[in-house]
Amino acid sequence: MNKISNTLLSLVTIALLSACSSDSGTSTQELEGGTSVTVPDLNSRSITVVDGYVIGAVVKDSNGVVIGTTDGYGKVYIADDANLNYPLSTNGGVIDKNQNHIVDADDLELPSDIVFMTDKGDVVSPITTLLANGTDSTQLATLAGVDNIEDFYKDPILDNNIELEKINQIAYAIVVSDNINTFNYNLDLRTNVELPQFSDSTITSQTGSIDALGDVAIDSLVSVDGKNFVSDVLSLDVTDVNDIELNLETSKEQLNDTVSGTATIQPTVITTETTTTTTTTTQPTTDVATTTDTIVTDTITTDSTDGTLPGFDNPVETDTTEYVAGDNMLPGMNGDIDIAPEEEPVADTDLPNFSSEDIEDITTDTTTETTSTTDSALPTFNYN
Fold it and tell me: pTM score > 0.70 for this model?
């Protein structure tokens, strides 16, 4: 107890009597026994790195100028009137999971290439990193059910804001997995496109909740470890914000290992089973019957006493047409041609008082009789 009291007294005395203030907003003072400590000046403000508090993170401004390294409370101090060039960025450090404000074996080291950012304010977190990389704060608030977008720039651990810290952890998975652009696209799609109405209203009722944010995050993440981590965040049931990091210890370590490439990946063994199938095709035996077609020859002979048809000089030729019975096809043709049946003769109505049965034979007389006639009634003309 004495040691604690003396230490507290020494810190208070240093804070009140410090005369060696620097522009960084902190002072370094010697304690008894040669131990030195760094304490904030009375007129100073702090930049806090939160994902759980991050110890040993290097904080820089937009010009790459180092502002400082975070202490056991995740803070770096600057003069109250210091002008900061935003966005601020941080990298490195360890997450103080057990909140004992020192680095020990229970803490989780951040991947060295992961950068957190903020475009305003005094808090740097995975949430502010999303906002500094194009995530629409209004859309994010609408989806996650946050009433005031300024809450995104607050310290959830200091306020014991469990819902905000859950959002922070979901944002962590998106940032470290480098899936911010995909998340921004899906966020815009989810908040701007009217969802279809289903008889089951669970989809639409999720909007404005941590579950809705989790759904979009899971859809945006590529790695299985990232998806599992978000699912673990959604399933948390805690009453103290400090318990969140402790409950996520295993899945967060696995996610970090995947991101840094140190995860042990079991090789996938693909067994291919080859099945040989023998197919025997038996041709059916077909009895070929020989069909003899009967050839019917129709001979049409046109006869004339003088060897020619009337009015023609060519000799009469005999036209012989052969038909193959039974196949309804003309010789030399491949298509089916129906042969129209013969029609019964129809009576010629142009011939009065005759029917086709009365006309048996018509003989054509080809004799041409020429008669020369002198018409004596015609007047005689003289051509002079």
Answer: no
